[in-house]
Design goal:
The chain is α+β, with helices and mostly antiparallel strands. It has three domains: about 1-95, OB fold (Dihydrolipoamide Acetyltransferase, E2P) (Beta Barrel), CATH 2.40.50; about 120-210, E3-binding domain (Dihydrolipoamide Transferase, Irregular); about 225-425, Chloramphenicol Acetyltransferase. About 25% of the residues lie in helices and about 25% in strands. It contains eight helices and 19 strands. The chain has helices at about 120-130, 135-140, 160-175, 205-220, 235-250, 255-270, 315-330, 405-420; strands at about 1-10, 20-25, 30, 35-40, 45-50, 55-60, 65-70, 75-80, 225-235, 275-280, 285-290, 295, 300, 305, 310, 345-350, 370-375, 375-385, 385-400. Strand 10 and strand 11 (about 285-290) form a beta hairpin. The N and C termini lie far apart (about 95 Å). The structure holds oxidized coenzyme A. Oxidized coenzyme A binds near residues 256, 258, 349, 353 and 393. Oxidized coenzyme A binds next to helix 6, strand 13, helix 7 and strand 16.
Length: about 425
C-alpha cells in the first residue's frame, strides 16, 4: 500500500544552513532509491543528496537557494512498502567538489548522502575541481564532455545540466573541421561594471556590426591566418593616375590607387590560381574559380560592408574606378543588396585614404586571401648606388595557411609589387 514518506537531509557532518544549489527532481517525478534529489554546497564542498526510497514525488519542500541542515524536509514521496528499500542515513556526506587547494577526495563513502564514486586518476581529479554536481559530471561524462571545458551559468558559476546540453549543441553546430578535437576553449570574458569607474553610455551595436562581427569572429578563430608584408614602388603608377584624373574629371570619375589594385590583383590571381579558390565543404578539395570577382571593404557609418565587383578581368581601370565610386556610395546609403556581397574570390581592404603603415586584414571566408592596402608615402630607396625618392605603397596579404604556403604568398605579393611598379604589365 502506498505510503507518504518524508525525505530529510541526512547527516552532513558539522555543516548547518547549507545552500541548495541544484534541485534535480520535481513533483510528479518517479524516482528510484539512490537517485540524486538535490545538491548542497558548503564553503568547502558540494554534495548530492540521494533518495533513500523509490516512489513518486508528491511535493517539493525546497528550492534552489534555500538553506538546510541535517533533518530539514526535502520532499514528500509516495512509496509502496514493497518497493521501498530505505537506506541508512547515519553516515556523513563526502565532498564531491572542492577548492583547488584542497586535497582531492579519494574514495566514496558508503553514506546515505553522496554515494559518488570518486577515482584518483588525473582526469577525475580535474573533474572534481570543476564546479558541478556529481550528477551533472556523470551526465557530462555520458555525453563525452569534459566538464572542465563547460562554462557554468549556475550559482557561483556552477555547471548545470543546461550548460552541458548547450555545450554539446554548440559543438555540434560547429562547421566540420572548424575546431580541433577539444573544441575552442577560452576563458569567459569578465563581466565588468564599467559605471563603477566613471560615467558611461550604452550604445547598441548596429545590425551590420553584429552580422559582420559574427563572420569576422568565425573567420579569425577558424582560419590559420598569416600576413605577409611588402611595399610596391608606385611612383610611375601615381604619375599615370594623376594624368588620368585630369582627363576624366569632366566625366566626374575619380581614379584612386584602388582601381589599379583591383586590376593588379586579378593579374596576380591569374598567375597564382590557388589564390582564386576556396575549400569545399568537406575541406578536402580546392574549388578553383575561373571568374574574377573581387570584394572591396567599404567603411560605412553603420559598419563594414564588402560589395563584390564582378568580372574585374574584363573591365578597364576607368570603368573599375567608376564602379568603385558607385558601389561605395550605395554601400554608405545602405542600398547594397545581399546578392551584391556574394560570390567574391578575393578581397581588398584599403585604408590608404586614411593612413597607417600596415595592418593584418581578416580573410573573408570562404575566400583564401585578402589584401590590405595602407597609405603610400615617399621613401628614400637605394638604386644604382644612390638614394632616390620613391612613392612606396605598403601591402599586407593575409592568407589561409591550410591551403597557401608561405613561399607561395611571398611570390604572390612580390609579383603584385612588380605589376604595380610597372603598370604596363596590366596589359600583358
Ligand atoms: N595611399 C595614399 N593615398 C591613397 C591611397 C593609398 N593607398 N588610397 C587612396 N588614397 C587617396 C585617394 O587617392 C584619395 O585622395 P584624393 O582625395 O586626394 O584624390 C583619398 O586617399 C581618399 O580615397 P578614398 O578612400 O575615398 O577612395 P579609395 O578608392 O581609396 O577607397 C573605399 C574607397 C570605399 C575602399 C574607402 O573609402 C573605404 O571605405 N576604405 C575603408 C575600408 C575599410 O574600412 N577597411 C578596413 C576593413 S577591416 O579589415
Amino acid at each position: 500500500m502506498a505510503e507518504i514518506k518524508q525525505v530529510l537531509v541526512p547527516d552532513i557532518g558539522d555543516y548547518k544552513d547549507v545552500s541548495i544549489i541544484e534541485v534535480m527532481v520535481k513533483a510528479g517525478d518517479t524516482i528510484k532509491a539512490e537517485d540524486n534529489l538535490v545538491t548542497l554546497e558548503t564553503d568547502k564542498a558540494a554534495m548530492d543528496v540521494p533518495s533513500p526510497y523509490s516512489g513518486v514525488i508528491k511535493e517539493m519542500k525546497v528550492k534552489v537557494g534555500d538553506k538546510v541542515s541535517q533533518g530539514s524536509l526535502i520532499l514528500l514521496l509516495e512509496s509502496s512498502d514493497a518497493a521501498t528499500a530505505p537506506m541508512k542515513t547515519d553516515k556523513p556526506a563526502a565532498p564531491v567538489s572542492a577548492p583547488a587547494s584542497a586535497p582531492a577526495p579519494v574514495a566514496a563513502k558508503p553514506a546515505a548522502a553522496v554515494p559518488v564514486a570518486v577515482q584518483t586518476s588525473q582526469a577525475v581529479v580535474a573533474e572534481a575541481k570543476a564546479h558541478a554536481s556529481p550528477a551533472i559530471r556523470r551526465f557530462a561524462r555520458e555525453l563525452g564532455v569534459q566538464i572542465t571545458q563547460v562554462k557554468g551559468s549556475g550559482e557561483k558559476g556552477r555547471v548545470t545540466k543546461d550548460d552541458v546540453q548547450n555545450f554539446v549543441k554548440a559543438a555540434l553546430a560547429q562547421p566540420r573541421g572548424a575546431t580541433g578535437g577539444n573544441g575552442l576553449q577560452v576563458l569567459a570574458m569578465p563581466v565588468v561594471d564599467f559605471a563603477k569607474f566613471g560615467a558611461i553610455e550604452i550604445r547598441p551595436l548596429s545590425r551590420i556590426k553584429k552580422l559582420s562581427g559574427a563572420n569576422l569572429h568565425r573567420n579569425w578563430v577558424t582560419i590559420p591566418h598569416i600576413t605577409q608584408f611588402d611595399e610596391a614602388d608606385i611612383t610611375e603608377m601615381e604619375a599615370f593616375r594623376k594624368e588620368l584624373n585630369v582627363e576624366y574629371v569632366k566625366q566626374n570619375i575619380k581614379i584612386t590607387p584602388l582601381a589599379f589594385m583591383l586590376k593588379a590583383v586579378v593579374v596576380a590571381l591569374q598567375q597564382f590560381p590557388e589564390f582564386n579558390a576556396s575549400l569545399d565543404a568537406s575541406g578536402e578539395n580546392l574549388v578553383l574559380k575561373q571568374y574574377f570577382h573581387i570584394g572591396v571593404a567599404v567603411d560605412t557609418p553603420d559598419g563594414l560592408m564588402v560589395p563584390v565587383l564582378r568580372d574585374v578581368d574584363k573591365k578597364g581601370i576607368v570603368q573599375l574606378a567608376k564602379e568603385l565610386g558607385e558601389v561605395s556610395a550605395r554601400a554608405r546609403e545602405k542600398k547594397i543588396t545581399a546578392a551584391e556581397m556574394q560570390g567574391g574570390c578575393f578581397s581588398i581592404s584599403s585604408l590608404g585614404g586614411i593612413g597607417g603603415t600596415a595592418f593584418t586584414p581578416i580573410i573573408n571566408a570562404p575566400e583564401l586571401a585578402i589584401l590590405g592596402v595602407s597609405k603610400a608615402s615617399i621613401k628614400p630607396m637605394h638604386q644604382d648606388d644612390t638614394f632616390v625618392a620613391r612613392l612606396m605603397l605598403p601591402l599586407s596579404l593575409s592568407y589561409d595557411h591550410r591551403v597557401i604556403d608561405g613561399a607561395a604568398a611571398a611570390r604572390f605579393i612580390v609579383f603584385l609589387t612588380q605589376v604595380l611598379a610597372d603598370v604596363r604589365r596590366l596589359a600583358l
